[in-house]
């Protein structure tokens, strides 16, 4: 069933229940359903119907969701992108667009919109750039998007009486999924439209559930308010943060996945990542024998169709309907915990050794004064690359290099220890809030004056 039709059902059953609360105010399910119908009629009046891609670049999250669900109701394929992009940028990343929406859709009067949806409809498209900064439009069917909703709802205990905080831009598939899942459930979506800072405490006083990435969780746990569940995706969650959540009375449900693969594994109780319902996992050997790490492959109903316009990307498939995006993990057998070690294309080859950046970052992120860190490989004439750390400090002054090196000696093998150290006022980030590794590397190579060498 299209998410828009879920909204219509909630509007009929609980019309006064708040559906969305954004920067401009709040709409009940009845009000939201009326706006979606009006916008869908407008799209149909412009000749936008089943199968038509509709590019959506709206800054206001409520207006964006209205347009998304209007396209959904009309049978079109909503493609959510960055509102800062111009038409030329849109054309470069998504050629052959049927319609581009960069202003709130007007409503149109008329009868209720009817569309006969099919599970295989191309019902959603969003951009994935990972840490590379090269956006690709990932397209998925209706079934791959919506039929996983009940599983997440059950794992996280999210129901129609919840108030769900979504503290990030909807161009990110992580936050977009959270928003439409909330509306399909009949809960209330809190949509600040950007990553809240000063407003966070007030939002948490109302929210019972939050969707976020790991580096945001410590801020949330300082003043959890009414929060009872945090759904965390995007990277590994360290044990200390999970323990802090327990002390704050917040249950953490963390998961591993990718825009192209959707959910792959979930940790609902702190016991480690295990296959998400409906998912089969294999870790296949990659690289030379005895390397110790393999490539994560998944087979499930939640896989995306591919990239819009057959764009190139990390998604690969085999003849058995298995797929991978190149992530690496320790050897895995069915029934065991999956230990993901990072993105395979980010591995650093240094002096014949392979270093996974996330392993180094996990150790150095614990140094007092380190807010976040990116580890990359810098070119070296004889070693191929040397491990390089770029620190974002909690305050203006980064930790002393001596302290960073002492921590590296105590927790890392010799090949893993950074040989070059830098500090930056703030790391560039992807739409999900993860550090943009390739952008850091490009800025460092380009001699960015904001990146300061630690001596």
Automatic annotation (TrEMBL):
<dbReference type="InterPro" id="IPR045851">
    <property type="entry name" value="AMP-bd_C_sf"/>
</dbReference>
<dbReference type="InterPro" id="IPR025110">
    <property type="entry name" value="AMP-bd_C"/>
</dbReference>
<dbReference type="GO" id="GO:0004467">
    <property type="term" value="F:long-chain fatty acid-CoA ligase activity"/>
</dbReference>
<dbReference type="InterPro" id="IPR000873">
    <property type="entry name" value="AMP-dep_synth/lig_dom"/>
</dbReference>
<dbReference type="InterPro" id="IPR042099">
    <property type="entry name" value="ANL_N_sf"/>
</dbReference>
<dbReference type="Pfam" id="PF00501">
    <property type="entry name" value="AMP-binding"/>
</dbReference>
<protein>
    <submittedName>
        <fullName>Long-chain acyl-CoA synthetase</fullName>
        <ecNumber>6.2.1.3</ecNumber>
    </submittedName>
</protein>
<feature type="domain" description="AMP-binding enzyme C-terminal">
    <location>
        <begin position="360"/>
        <end position="434"/>
    </location>
</feature>
<keyword id="KW-0436">Ligase</keyword>
<feature type="domain" description="AMP-dependent synthetase/ligase">
    <location>
        <begin position="9"/>
        <end position="91"/>
    </location>
</feature>
<feature type="domain" description="AMP-dependent synthetase/ligase">
    <location>
        <begin position="112"/>
        <end position="308"/>
    </location>
</feature>
<dbReference type="InterPro" id="IPR050237">
    <property type="entry name" value="ATP-dep_AMP-bd_enzyme"/>
</dbReference>
<dbReference type="Pfam" id="PF13193">
    <property type="entry name" value="AMP-binding_C"/>
</dbReference>
């Amino acid at each position: 069933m299209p998410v828009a039709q879920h909204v219509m059902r909630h509007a009929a059953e609980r019309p006064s229940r708040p559906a969305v609360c954004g920067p401009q105010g709040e709409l009940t399910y009845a009000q939201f359903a009326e706006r979606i119908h009006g916008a869908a009629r407008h799209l149909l009046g412009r000749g936008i119907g089943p199968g038509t891609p509709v590019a959506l670049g709206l800054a206001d999250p409520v207006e964006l969701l209205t347009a998304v669900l209007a396209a959904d109701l009309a049978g079109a394929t909503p493609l959510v992108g960055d509102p800062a992009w111009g038409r030329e940028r849109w054309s470069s990343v998504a050629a052959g667009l049927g319609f581009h929406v960069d202003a709130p859709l007007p409503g149109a009067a008329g009868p209720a919109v009817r569309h006969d949806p099919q599970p295989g409809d191309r019902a959603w498209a969003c951009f994935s750039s990972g840490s590379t900064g090269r956006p690709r439009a990932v397209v998925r069917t209706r079934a791959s998007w919506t039929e996983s909703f009940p599983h997440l709802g059950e794992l996280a205990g999210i129901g129609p009486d919840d108030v769900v905080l979504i503290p990030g831009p909807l161009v990110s598939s992580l936050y977009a999924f959270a928003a439409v899942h909330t509306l399909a459930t009949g809960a209330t979506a809190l949509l600040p439209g950007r990553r809240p800072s000063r407003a966070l405490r007030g939002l948490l006083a109302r929210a019972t559930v939050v969707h976020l990435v790991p580096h945001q969780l410590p801020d949330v746990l300082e003043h959890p308010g009414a929060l009872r569940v945090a759904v965390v995706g995007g990277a590994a969650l360290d044990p200390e943060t999970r323990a802090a959540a327990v002390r704050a009375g917040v249950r953490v449900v963390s998961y591993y996945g990718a825009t192209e693969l959707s959910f792959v594994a979930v940790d609902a109780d702190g016991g480690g990542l295990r296959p998400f319902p409906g998912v089969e996992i294999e870790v296949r050997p990659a690289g030379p024998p005895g390397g110790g790490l393999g490539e994560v492959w998944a087979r499930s109903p939640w896989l995306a169709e591919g990239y819009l316009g057959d764009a190139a990307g990390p998604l690969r498939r085999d003849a058995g309907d298995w797929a991978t995006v190149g992530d690496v993990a320790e050897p895995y057998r069915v029934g065991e915990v999956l230990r993901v070690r990072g993105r395979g294309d980010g591995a650093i080859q240094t002096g014949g050794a392979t270093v996974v950046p996330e392993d180094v970052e996990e150790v150095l992120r614990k140094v007092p004064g380190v807010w976040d860190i990116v580890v990359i490989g810098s070119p070296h004439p004889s070693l191929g690359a040397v491990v390089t750390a770029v620190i974002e400090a909690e305050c203006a002054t980064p930790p002393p290099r001596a302290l960073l090196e002492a921590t590296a000696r105590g927790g890392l093998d010799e090949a893993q220890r950074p040989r070059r150290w830098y500090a930056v006022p703030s790391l560039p980030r992807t739409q999900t809030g993860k550090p943009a590794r390739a952008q850091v590397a490009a800025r460092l190579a380009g001699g960015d004056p904001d990146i300061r060498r630690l001596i």
